[in-house]
Amino acid sequence: MEPQVTGEPQPRTGNPPLIRNWWSLTGLVIAGGALFSFLLLFILDSLARFGNPYLGILTYLVAPGFLFLGLFLTLWGMWRERRRRRREGAGPTQLVIDFSRPRDRRRLAWFVAGAAGFLLLSAVGSYQTYHFTESTQFCGQACHTVMEPQWTTHQQGPHARVACVECHIGPGATWFVKSKLSGTYQVYATLADKYPRPIPTPIKNLRPARETCEQCHWPQKFIGNLDRTFHYFLADETNTPFVVRMTLKVGGGDPRHGPVEGIHWHVHPTNVVQYVAARFENGQWVPDPTRQSIPWVRFVDGQGVVTEFRKRGFTNDPARFEIRTMDCMDCHNRPAHQYQAPTRAVNRAMALGRIDPSLPWIKSNAVYVLTLEYTNRTEALETIATFLATAYPPDTYPDRQPQVRAAIAEVQEIYRNNFFPHMRASWEKYPVNSSHMFWPGCFRCHEGEHTTADGKRTIVKDCNACHSILAQGHGDALRQLAPEGLPFQHPGDEVEGGCYDCHTGGL
Fold first, then answer.
1. Looking at residues 191-207, what average pLDDT do you find?
2. Which residue of 341, 343, 462, 466 lies most exposed, with the fewest beta carbons within 10 A?
3. Would you list the domain boundaries of the chain?
4. What broad class describes the main subcellular location of this protein (predicted)?
5. Cα dist. 476→8, 207, 471, 481, 488 in Å?
6. Beta carbons within 10 angstroms of residue 185's beta carbon
7. Burial per residue of 203-232, b for 16 or more beta-carbon CB atoms within 10 angstroms, e otherwise
8. Which residues contact 342 (CB under 8 A, 6 or more apart)?
9. Residue of 245, 243, 247 whose CA lies nearest to 263
10. Confidence of residue 51 (pLDDT cuts 50, 70, 90)
11. What is the pTM for the complete model shown?
């Protein structure tokens, strides 16, 4: 008997699709919303005239994260629904694709098109995510409170146009993976508020300088001598200027263009300089993670001759410590994030006219107010304004108020760029080894105390080995240069010891 055909729809046979459950439907809603958000944010990011780290985070991290969360919930809901049906004895739904049916062909075409589109979006998103997480904005501004000191000093420094990853990661996949693994913990530490204050210099985790710095700077490049002029102002009533003009003997390591000599002699490939960083503490020598104390040095010349130098009292076996081969970072340890000491920043501002040197005691007052302890930036800026305005009242200095206001603004700007009380970051926390004014720097080895076992050789302590003073003082003293070099004349009374013994960055 033929079945009766009527206009009524025939009831569906079999189980409904596995996707018909609340978990899967919720996942589809989340995935659809995330996909729409990604497309919208991607268009906004592509059309934006200026980069925004938070727009990048939403576009390439948050939106894809919710997209994959939605897809996961969809698949998980289907898996739960399949298990439920098995427990109820309904049996699994069989997947049947019949290309003779137009409906199956259309569904397969939609699936292939959707999969291709998803893969295309995933490729674009992954590419953009990679570049976004490698950007300077992401490193410096995404975690604004934590990274503000590094971001600010980077923007003020000589490497402002060099991306963070160029130095902190460099080329190659190995260090990229290492950085991402390290970054995972840093994200956790930031969210859990477990990060140190201030952020320490990544001495151990920093990639070797020969793989990063020498991509742009290499010791074989011959530089020769550099002429430098340093402007200082004394902390007296008249802010007496004191200028030092000198020749820095940078030298180079390419014998085709000049002799292998000067400061860069230390890192020439044929000169291997190794050292141990250790400090004497509680009656014994212990490793110095800051590398500010160096009691042992080994030099291997181009012929393989080995010479060891020790400080008096260091009798330990160097093998018990880390023996480090000297490279760029042992002197240029703050190439991108430089915190200016108050006296240096004020000297520069006065030399450039941003602070009027004719204001009585302005050097002393500016440095003093910068070195006070503050709990937050607002308190510091208000105190700076009040202190300097009180030091130069309108009734005493009626004609100097424009200069006073300019000095207040400049000192406040110096504070903004170099002091970060919420992170306890300032020049005091980060030693600088490329000089010897406020930190031992060169004198870690060149203080005249490193000698060989037989006492016949000593690492030289000679200012003229690295630089020659051509002129010093002020006025007529600067008119005539001395090519052979002058002995340094300390303003006022002669003093002994290293500069850093007295000069701490303040008064």
1. 82
2. 462
3. 22-133, 136-206, 224-335+433-501, 342-429
4. membrane
5. 112, 49, 10, 11, 17
6. 11
7. eeeebebbebbbeeebbbebbeeeeeeebb
8. 366, 367, 370, 371, 414, 418, 427, 505, 506
9. 247
10. low
11. 0.78
